[in-house]
Specification:
Blueprint: H1 2-32, H2 34-43, H3 49-72, H4 76-100, H5 118-136, H6 138-144
């Protein structure tokens, strides 16, 4: 019984570390080259230039801080809710761009090769959102913070 409980705990910790690593690495890549990230945001043709510029400077640091919160468990639930909000916005932006037929780079993890790959991007973002949803569940909160 104790082994099963420790395996469950390890699973929740692994989920927390994977999600934290995803956002930490994505934020670092974007913070490293905010000019490139600004171009990626601008290609979505949703925001005005000044908003795209501000987002290119601040969003990476929000992702970095939230990712770090997943590793150290400080402000963990707040970081989870922030990331859920960001993922919902990311999914909506992808859907709008796909419906508009834009050929763009996602910008999530720096420069990616090839053209638009909306189905893969949406599947990836929805899986991340599902992982965050698991953590927000009552059982998930208790286990992830254990």
């Amino acid at each position: 019984m104790e082994t099963r409980a420790s395996l469950k705990s390890m699973g929740w910790t692994l989920l927390r570390w994977i999600l934290g690593g995803i956002f930490l690495s994505a934020g670092v890549i974007k913070a490293w080259d905010p000019g490139r990230f600004f171009m990626d945001i601008s290609n979505y043709q949703i925001l005005p230039t000044t908003a795209s510029m501000a987002l290119a400077w601040y969003l990476p640091w929000i992702e970095i801080m939230c990712g770090l919160c997943f590793f150290c468990k400080r402000f963990f639930m707040g970081a989870t809710w922030i990331l859920v909000g960001l993922m919902v916005i990311f999914v909506a932006a992808l859907c709008v761009s796909w419906m508009r037929g834009l050929d763009l780079q996602c910008g999530c993890f720096g420069v990616s090769s090839g053209g638009s790959n909306y189905p893969i991007w949406l599947m990836r973002d929805l899986l991340i959102l599902a992982g965050l949803g698991l953590i927000l569940s009552k059982k998930g909160r208790a286990q992830a913070l254990a």
